[in-house]
Structure formats: structure tokens, C-alpha cells
């Protein structure tokens, strides 16, 4: 029996059905949401349980956003700096992910690899987790395609409505062509109902070719203008400044500007450095902000404190590279411990060596010894020569945090689908796609209002290429084994084809209409795109609820 049939039984049989049905078992994650809603809560409290799950779902999106914003992206930037990548060209990637701005001047290679990975981390990790179970693969397909339709219609159309502009011709045509190729490849994979090793490598190979094309086009463009730095051209706009200056992880006096620095240098104690670094609040900013900003910040504070305690951040823009000696020594213990306790939902961390000593105990012992050695051989004022290693540790730990949050996110969405008898595809194209794209919407529209609509429009088509190619390619590649080098992607309903067709049609519409308007995009174009999305959403929901089905087509 399928797990979604639980609601067809008498409420007194729900718990037994969930616990005895193999289809209801959740392989990953820390919480068993199905047992919680059908066994822990009585049937009359089902609406209350659903409300709690919905609030937890929203909080998981906050966790994903905070982790990517303040820990994953900064450490990726530090790693790229250590790899000696130049910083000279604005990258056409999405400037926001998970509710934060990621404005950065980078080389094109940096932009389409490191920055793209940082910006798309929640989407890619969600796809990888969803592809790990055939029962939730529809979530990944729905989210990747649904986010693509949403961003290329609602966000792009909103930009044209807010600020009519002239689109950058070459980057737009390049990105749309590559995106259409990715959609066509996915359409073929869905048609055959499987993805083999060759197709999975084809996704990743197409992205590598896209990276090569971006770098080559940028090099040719710069060569035409001359080798020296020049004012930004029509497809290389100046980066806007963020009106709400980003807070750094672990604030201190130097973060507030020169006017707040003490006149005389003073030696801070290790305890003071630790307490200051673990404070996620900027009290000067707190007093200036409106009540709704404070409310949202209050929800973020517990997550930020736990992340500050477990994830080191290296900031190349600071004189001290964000070196906090007592906190970084503590990270030597907490970061590896968190990694082993989140890997496979703690299965490896709780494993007992020779049936006696747990792995987490060994990691704690080794981390404590190493932390004491680092504390005794370093100073508070100057970071050690090996401080860059903390960027790699922070990258790994923040990736484990994102993976753990994405696993819980996929599990809770599957649970909500079983409760409301909805397919994973419709949950992916609505809740998961909206949650991953809402940040892009606000940031791109804000950027357009500030006078940078061209950059915001480029981000709509440039950033999501990474999500579909790497999300599907890597997600399926990681699930393949030597005994079974393929992943079955059989469409569970007509909705998958509606979704794929809607995305392809929206791209073809933009590919034809934008050059036809000589790249002059105004309110009429924006209204058409937003209307298209509303029609698509209505058709998708009608298809989900069987109002539209094959016999009526």
C-alpha cells in the first residue's frame, strides 16, 4: 500500500498503518514526522500538528538562508581568495540566496563556480537529498522546474514592471540558450524515465561548457575594451551598495567603522573576545530598525548563535581575517563533532569502535587536544599562518548544516504531502520552489528600484542554470552505484509534463520576444510574464486535483 492512503483508513488505525507500512519509513533525518503527526498527536489535534509542522518548515528555510548567507558563502569567498582568483569582473549570478545579499566583485570563473555554488547551495542540497529516495524525487523535479518558472516569469516580469530597461543582449541570449538546452536534456530524461551515468555526466559537462563560455566571452569582451580596468559596460554594471550593510559573523568594534574604534589600543581578554564573537546582535543597528525587522531577527538569533559556535568564518576583507582565538580553538572541537553527528543523521557518530568507545567520543578527545595546542601556540592579536585551513573547515561544517536542514525540509514536505494527499511534484513547484526563490524576488526587485534592473534581470537567467545542471546531475550521480548505474525518474503524473512544458515555453517566449523588442523591456513584457505564471499555476493545480487529465486533453 502507498503511504498516502493512510487518510483513507479509520483514525484509530493511522498509527499502526504508518509503523507497519514500509513505504512510510523515512531513511534520513533526525525526526520521524509521520509517526509524530499520526501517532503522537491524537486525530482531533491534526490541524494543530500541521500548524507546528508549517512553522517548523518556515524555520528550516531560515536556517538554510542564515547558513548560506553568513557562513557558507563567506568561507567559499575566502577559499577562492586563497586559490589566487582575481577580483575584477561582476559575475552574472543571483545576488541573493536565502534572504541575504551576496554582492561580490569576482572573476567570471569565481562567479560561475564558487559564487554560484554558494548562492545555490540550499537548492542543490535539497535536490541531492530529494533524489536520494525515489519516493521524493518528484520534490526535486518540481522544485528545480518550479523555481525556474517562477524566477524567469514572476521575478523577471516584476523587474520590468518596477524599472523598464534595456537588457544586456549577449549574456541574455547566452544564458537562455544554455537554460533551454538544460530543460531539453531534462525533458528527454523524463521521457525515457531514467538517467544513466552518461546523462548525469552530461549535465555536469554542460555546466563546465557553460563556465568555459562565460570565461571566454568575458575575456573577449575585455580584450575589445583593452586590458586595463574600464568603467562598467552595458553587461557589466557597477555593483550597488547594500542599503542594509551586512552584519559580519561575530561583530566587534572594528565592524562599526572608524568612529567607534577606541583611541588607544587595548588588549582584550580571551573571555571578552569569546563573548563578543558569539553575539549575533549589533545593538546599534537593533535600535535603528523597525519592529518587524527586530521580530525576524529574534527568530534568527538562536540559529546564528549555534552556527557561530560550530562554524568558523574566515574573512579576507578584515585585517585580522576574523581571527577569534578562543572561538576558533573551540571550533576545532565543535566543528568535527557536528560533522560526525550530522553525517547520515548521526549514524556514524554514534557508532561504537570495538563495541566500546563511540566515534563522537574519539572526535571529542582528539579535538580537545588539538584545540589546547592551538590555544597555547597562538595569540589573540595575530592569526596563525595556517588560518586559511579554518575556511575549509567552515565550508565543510556549513555544508553539513545545509545538508541536515535540507534533509529535514524534504522529509517534512513529504509528510505534508501525505497528510493532504498531494504529490511531491506539486509540493516541489509550490512550497519548496517559493521558499528557495523568495529571496531572489525581494533582492532583484530591490536592486531594480535602486537603478540596477539589468543586473537583476541577468541574475534571473544566470543563477538558475547552476541549480538545474548541478542539482540534477550531481543529485543523480551520487545515487548511482556500480551495480545499478542509473536512477529511475518515471513521471508520477501529467503534472511533470505540464511543469517541463511550461518552463520550456516561458524560455522560448523570452528568447523570441526580448530580441523582437530590441531588448527594450517595459511594463507590457512584465505583465505578460506574470500573467503567464498565474495561468501556469492554475493549470498545474487543476492537473493535480484531476480536473485536467489525459482523457480531457
Automatic annotation (TrEMBL):
| Keyword flag Ion transport | yes
Origin superkingdom: Eukaryota
Q: What are the UniProt keywords, alphabetically?
A: Antiport, Calcium, Calcium transport, Ion transport, Membrane, Transmembrane, Transmembrane helix, Transport
Question: Cellular component per GO?
Answer: membrane
Q: Where the protein is mainly located, per its record?
A: membrane
Q: Where is the segment annotated Disordered?
A: 226-259
**Which GO BP terms sit in this record?**
calcium export from the mitochondrion; intracellular calcium ion homeostasis
Q: Which InterPro entries match?
A: CaCA_antiporter (IPR051359), NaCa_Exmemb (IPR004837), NCX_ion-bd_dom_sf (IPR044880)
Q: What is this protein called?
A: NCLX protein
One GO MF term attached to the UniProt entry: calcium:sodium antiporter activity
Task: Give the gene name.
Answer: Slc8b1
Record field: transmembrane: 45-66, 139-161, 176-193, 200-221, 357-376, 388-406, 412-434, 455-474, 494-512, 524-543
> Where in the cell is the protein located?
Membrane
What membrane topology is annotated for this entry?
Multi-pass membrane protein
* Keyword Membrane appears in the UniProt entry: yes
Q: Which Gene3D superfamilies match?
A: NCX, central ion-binding region
Q: Which residues form the Sodium/calcium exchanger membrane region domain?
A: 54-215, 391-541
